[in-house]
Amino acid sequence: MTIRTRFAPSPTGYLHIGGARTALYSWLFARKHQGRFILRIEDTDLERSTPESVAAILEGMAFLNLDYDEGPFYQTERFDRYREVLSELIAHGHAYYCTCTKAELEERRAAQMARKEKPRYDRRCREAGHGPSPEAVVRFKNPLSGEVVVDDAVKGRVVFRNDELDDLIIARSDGTPTYNFTVVVDDMDMGITHVIRGDDHLNNTPRQINMLRALDARPPAYAHIPMILGEDGARLSKRHGAVSVMQYRDEGYLPEALINYLMRLGWAHGDQEIFTRAEMIALFDLKDVHAAAAAINPKKLLWLNQHYIKTLPAADIAERLRPFLAERGADLTAGPALTDVVLALQERAKTLIEMAEHALFFYRQEVAIGDPKNQAILASAPRAALEALAAAFTAQPAWTRETVHATLEAVAEGQGLTFGKLAQPVRIAVTGTSISPPIDVTCALLGRERCVTRLKSAAAPR
RNA sequence: GCUCCCUUCGUCUAGUGGCCUAGGACGCUGGCCUCUCACGCCGGUAACAGGGGUUCGAAUCCCCUAGGGAGCGCCA
Questions:
Q1: In 3D, which of A335, A425, A331, A418 has the Cα closest to residue A382?
Q2: Cβ of A155 < 7 Å from strand B?
Q3: Is A238 a catalytic residue?
Q4: pLDDT at A242
Q5: A8 backbone dihedrals φ, ψ, rounded to 5°
Q6: For chain A, percent helix, then strand, then coil, each to nearest 5?
Q7: A279 CB-contact burial (10 Å; exposed 0-12 / middle 13-18 / buried 19+)
Q8: Cα-based distances in Å from A94 to A185, A349, A354, A376
Q9: How far apart are CA A440 and CA A75, in angstroms?
Q10: pLDDT at A265
Q11: pLDDT for the residue A417
């Protein structure tokens, strides 16, 4: 049997990291078993679904490199099929028309709550034999007795009693189908073998299984993965900062880091922290998914991002860095090869934004020393030392890291300074900041001409 | 309120009855390295929610309590 999994987001917002993890686990499971991964857009809520959200979801999946074998399918394009299954259900006595109004239902719900009962439909129309009408909804006739057992891959065996369940609405009065019904029809039609989704759906599962049975379909296997909590342990929301996958991208996070982080959040393989895609596919197993909700830890994500910035090929990082540099007005043709700059910066940036900012002075005509602290450091070196260095640089035959280093050492000695006492003011002079790669590397990369110009300008009286 | 789920360091987790005076990672922190910032290396900090059982032995099995979460929509 071919394993078939699906990711079924509703396009009512961006792709957030909880959804991304659900998608990742479904993708991994399919890949591990040489199965098929299907993307389905659950857009039956015409009110809240937007094309922008669809685009955001697709974009997020692409960024994370989660490719799908089938889809994206849109539920709004399958309304004929839902109608067909709906009439089948009605014809076989598994569903019925209900004419109770929203106001009536509301009232009964309130009364049940007041009586400390679980609010649910009282099945008043179940045997009434109503026919179709403009106000009528269609309800599924849930079994009245017995129980439904969900053998969940992460939660274990969960038993629901049918008398706890009510007759849910599967088609609205305007004829459109509802979520719990479309999901059943789609999972059945698309031959989904493993439903991997958030555990907020665990309570829906017995009703879906009952519908599947009414349709003579074999229920898939289920795996309900816990939700992701914010840093404070509360439910994830906008106020927790970056929760959108695209926002992480914009903040300079690598998909490798995000995927690794999400993978490891609520799942473990012993003490291993870093996983390649191939390892993830090979090692992933639903049974190792932790059953409890996990809080997001932004610092650890940052650490992982740094790890991948550090270890991925410099040329690769350079390509990803380009847009961040362009955004900051850097002219990449007026400076050293970007890959060389990345090589120098790779161990000193946690995000691409940070790297772009630290790379900027390589691609600017001039630097400004705005910070008073930096001006003070610059002033700590005798003007003559900077001038001597500029002269020595000019006279120096070859321009490499080694020769630059030797010149710096010679000038420092000549001026009666330690290497460090000269290096830091020089750093301020040529980069405009107190932070950069080693000064010899920085100068070598920046080029003789710019170094000399900046040294002279820093030495000039103001 | 009812039903369902969950509970190991601050956080993510290892642990499936003895290897646990509970391991790793992030964070925080002391030190080393050092021209800045980083990287790297060495060390420290900190947890089995509580209570009852079962057992020679429990973080691991059972029960209860407490706490957290989800669902109970003509939302998905």
A1: A425
A2: yes
A3: yes
A4: 64
A5: -130, 70
A6: 50, 15, 35
A7: middle
A8: 14, 61, 60, 83
A9: 61
A10: 94
A11: 86
Gap from A389 CA to B33 C1', Å: 28
Helices (H), A360-418: 372-379, 383-395, 401-414
Whether nucleic acid strand B comes within 7 Å of the CB of A74, the answer is no
Tokens of A104: 């009536």
What residue is closest to B6 (Cα–C1')? Answer: A292
| Low-confidence residues in chain A, pLDDT < 70 | 237-242, 461-462
Look up residue A407 and give its amino acid. T
Do the beta carbons of residue A344 and residue A445 sit within 8 Å?
yes
Amino acid symbol at A64: L
Window A78-97, strand B contacts by Cβ < 7 Å: none
Those nucleotides of strand B lying less than 7 Å from any protein Cβ are: 1-8, 10-15, 23-28, 35-39, 68-76
pLDDT digits (tens, 9 = 90+) for A36-86: 999 999 998 888 889 999 999 999 999 999 999 998 999 999 999 999 999
Residue type at A356 in one-letter notation? A
Structure-token match 């982080």, residue found? A261
What are the start-end ranges of the H helices in A92-193? 102-114, 179-189
Q: How far is the CA of A274 from the C1' of B37 (A)?
A: 25
ipTM: 0.93
Give start and end residues of each alpha helix (H) in A267-371: 277-283, 298-311, 314-327, 338-345, 352-359
Task: Please state, in angstroms and as integers, the Cα–Cα distance from residue A184 to each residue in A81, A164, A192, A205, A393, following that order.
Answer: 12, 20, 10, 10, 74
Neighbours of A128 (CB within 10 A): 12
Q: Is the pTM of this model over 0.90?
A: yes
- CA–CA dist A329, A17 (Å, integer): 31
pLDDT for position A458: 77
CA-CA distance, A375 to A317, in Å (whole number)? 33
d(Cα A101, Cα A47) in Å, to the nearest integer?
A: 20
